[in-house]
Amino acid sequence: MQKKSLLYSGKVKSVYQTEDPERLVMEFRDDATAFNGVKHELLENKGKVSNIFNAFIMQKLEAAGIKTHFIEQISDNESLVKPLDMLRVECVVRNVAAGSLSKRYGIEEGAELRAPIFEFFLKDDELGDPMINDEHIVAFGWGTREDINKMRELTIKVNSVLKELFLQGEIILVDYKLEFGYNNGELLLGDEFTPDNCRLWDASTHEKMDKDRFRRGLGSVVESYIDVGRRIGISSL
């Protein structure tokens, strides 16, 4: 299946139309960005590693009964996906205090939480992706009560699947972000799941193995992504 006109180009991915309106090509580029695009670099092989990583995770989630937009990997840095009418809502689960949670509440980074925290954020770079609640989503028409309940249910189910998967590789799933959209009336997990949109720490040393390596200038970004992938069983990295 050949990609045709560019449909959308984001910070690290481009999406192309194909001859089939129910099939899109999602291309992972070598771009690395942080702080809403203020920091930007090209990292060799990042697109390939992210694409392979995402394909592996999406297939694991599908096997666990979580429906996604992913269809198949078609090249080193491209995958075939279903088109989605995306909701303007980001779903975040936090298992350990880090990032904005630590800053917002003065909680020491690395503090274990008594229970996972689920949060909604509005997907809007210009507004800084503000935190929102159920009432905002309904009042402003960003989703329905049914959407809210389904997104929460699926995001928490993802947590149970992936926490176990990463722990098998001696990695802590600290937190992550998911996005959802509709395809023919069905709510599906969209976007991606890579170390770009989650936090992953070595279980013994708490060494950062995710995008924080880029945010904080720690180096070895792609190498860490590969290490994570190999630990959880991605043999093609």
From TrEMBL:
List UniProt keywords, sorted A-Z.
ATP-binding, Ligase, Nucleotide-binding, Purine biosynthesis
* Pathway listed: Purine metabolism; IMP biosynthesis via de novo pathway; 5-amino-1-(5-phospho-D-ribosyl)imidazole-4-carboxamide from 5-amino-1-(5-phospho-D-ribosyl)imidazole-4-carboxylate: step 1/2
Protein name as annotated: Phosphoribosylaminoimidazole-succinocarboxamide synthase
Q: Which species?
A: Piscirickettsia litoralis
The catalytic activity of this protein is classed by the Enzyme Commission as 6.3.2.6
Question: Which positions fall inside the SAICAR synthetase/ADE2 N-terminal domain?
Answer: 6-230
Q: Which PANTHER family match?
A: MULTIFUNCTIONAL PROTEIN ADE2, SI:DKEY-6E2.2
Task: Spell out the reaction equation it catalyses.
Answer: 5-amino-1-(5-phospho-D-ribosyl)imidazole-4-carboxylate + L-aspartate + ATP = (2S)-2-[5-amino-1-(5-phospho-beta-D-ribosyl)imidazole-4-carboxamido]succinate + ADP + phosphate + 2 H(+)
InterPro entries associated with the record: SAICAR_synt/ADE2_N, SAICAR_synt_PurC, SAICAR_synth, SAICAR_synthetase, SAICAR_synthetase_CS
Pfam families assigned to the protein according to its UniProt record, in alphabetical order: SAICAR_synt (PF01259)
Q: Which family is annotated?
A: Belongs to the SAICAR synthetase family.
Q: Please, which domain of life does this record's source organism belong to? A: Bacteria
- Top enzyme category: ligase
Q: Which Gene3D superfamilies match?
A: ATP-grasp fold, B domain, Phosphorylase Kinase, domain 1
